Amino acid sequence: MLFRIAAISLVTMGLGATSAIASPIAVGKYKDWTVFTDTINGDAICYAATEATDKAPKTADHGDVWFYVSNWRSGQARNQPSLKVGYELRGDLPGKAKIGRSHWSLFSVGREAFAQDSDDAKLVKQLKRGRELRVEATSERNTRVTYHFSLSGSSAAISRAASACR
Question: How many CB atoms are closer than 10 A to CB 91?
Fold first, then answer.
């Protein structure tokens, strides 16, 4: 799992920062979701991503806030959901992802949060079926944050990202 976390961190850097990795290429727009491809160290990465539609508290500097479902052609990750924020998250306080009545614990690593590997498939299934994703987390400065993400277009985008990296 540690390799997957490090690898996905490299992917998500591509949307908000310039780095030694190639810039992601948008390959499709599906309502509120966009599918991107990129190459890192010769491995193709394909991911569906959406930006937060609401951020709370309004007074906090959240930076860019995105939710991803990522795939690596090599198989290092398949349909891996994650949250990327513009600040450091507390690693000792789990976050939570909620869709309808379903919820999952998220663990934080730096500026990202991930579901447990055993929850990935269940979370992705609900991402494809639901209307809205709500994510709660705590910053390193102890600010409780809440994000809302539209799931409109998520099913098509997640499927397209997965097929692009087969």
Answer: 13
Position of tokens 């498939």?
Answer: 121
Three-state SS for 144? strand
pLDDT per residue over 69-123, tens digit each? 999 999 999 999 999 999 999 999 999 999 999 999 999 999 999 999 999 999 9
The C-alpha atoms of residue 1 and residue 5 are separated, in whole angstroms, by 6
Q: Which domains does the chain have, with CATH numbers?
A: 2-164 (2.60.40.1880)
pTM, entire model: 0.87
Among candidate residues 141, 142, 143, 148, the one with its CA nearest the CA of residue 57:
143
8 Å CB contact between 81 and 115 = yes
Tokens of 159: 């499927």
Distance in angstroms (rounded) separating the CA atoms of residues 63 and 115: 22
